[in-house]
Write a structure and sequence with these properties.
globular; mainly alpha; 487 residues; single chain
Amino acid sequence: MTSSQQMPNVRTAFATVRSPNGYLSLATAVLLAATALMPQLWRTLNSVAAELAAVGTLVTLLLVWLMKPHHIGRHRADQRHGTVIAARSILQLVLHLWPVGILTLIYPIASQRMAGTAVGGVRLTSLLLAVALTVPWLSQGVCMPLYRAIGPLIHDGDMDKIRSEFCEVWPLTFAQSLPTILLFAIPVQLATQWSMKAMSAYVGLCVLDLAFAQSLVLTNMGHHRFGWALAWTGYAAPLLVFPTAWFLPPLLGLVPHLVLLHRFLRVRLIALDRIDVLRDVVRGLLLGSVLWADKLFYFLRDANHFAVETVFLALLPAVLAYNYYFVRLAPGFDSSVASLRAAMENEPISSLGRYSQELFALVQTSIVRTALAGALLSFGISWTMINITPDRAGLIAGVATASWLFMMTTVLCYKIDYIGEHRVSQGFSGAHLALCGVAFVAMPAGPALYFALAGIELLLFFVALRACLTSWRMPEYTFFWRHATAW
């Protein structure tokens, strides 16, 4: 190839880097590298007050930018409208993150009051930790059938019909989902050798949490953030008031939903197809494994040395960015997809290119914004944690870096799954799960393991990113062929 033939590729590469998304991607890479190298950076730059002030400023600027609407008009009326939208988005995000905040505050207090309490010879704190590491992953699987069942009704906006349909399918779907708990209970028992009483408590609490998680589907899909926050307040309150009554949180968390649904509870029950439920549960478990499997594997590998506060706080940036994506960015993404579908049905083919390009640009922007949010939060929170507990700098940096990659791979897998490439998304998720399992078998739990996982996940992330962008580059064709082959 001649130099003249190479020039367009060079220009394209420079144009990509110099685009807004290119600059933000570069900033993300720098922040993620700084997080990974934080133990070394902290020893070199250890003026705590100045650095914390800088981190606080960066985080503040990030939040201001991230909560801006995508398009704000030039006129004052448009600006006021944009400000209202931004304020509403911030409120929705705060309410959606309410469980993260309230549980982060309450659990340390409750765990101190649980000291000395045991169930079947197992410390209550250890039992609750096992459940807390199981349920986020478990809920990704058991909620998927309900999302599929009531999902088509959400766009109509008839909440009475949605609630009635939910009450028709929820009881039997709950019963069909119960065996999923065995996939977690058996490894926990083999790893911990807990007594029958302790394992019964573990399984019982998983059952209650499964019911609570499924009850949240209706609130989450309807974007009822106040109902969401109220349910989680009911869940968290017993931990503070009656910390040793381990069965109370999910039961009280269910109360607001049961009150809301009381008019629809006397309905005929409908059983979803067992094969469809099984397929949905497996699909959800695989997708959920990317962000949550390593935490449970860590517990199973070395339960006695699981650094609870360190791991959960280092995971926090990824959780915050993950929720930011689904609350702030996913609704606009859904609207853009709906616009393309409507154009495919009602407008000439020549007009589809514009909708397709706008949707692809939105896919890119949502990935970049989520990545930057996670990277900056990882840098800021990790720096703060290392200043408080410098002896755990390696674990903090390793978990934060790896969790950012897990979170981004999860978002990419959801985007690939959204467009109908279920086997591709499940293939990436399954690959992550297998590699993660091998890593925890081959290496002791700790910083080295998480940095190794980060290196492996980095390769998987880039492959998933390429697959995601390829799938969404011309979405009108993908949606058309999905529709055509469904007949």
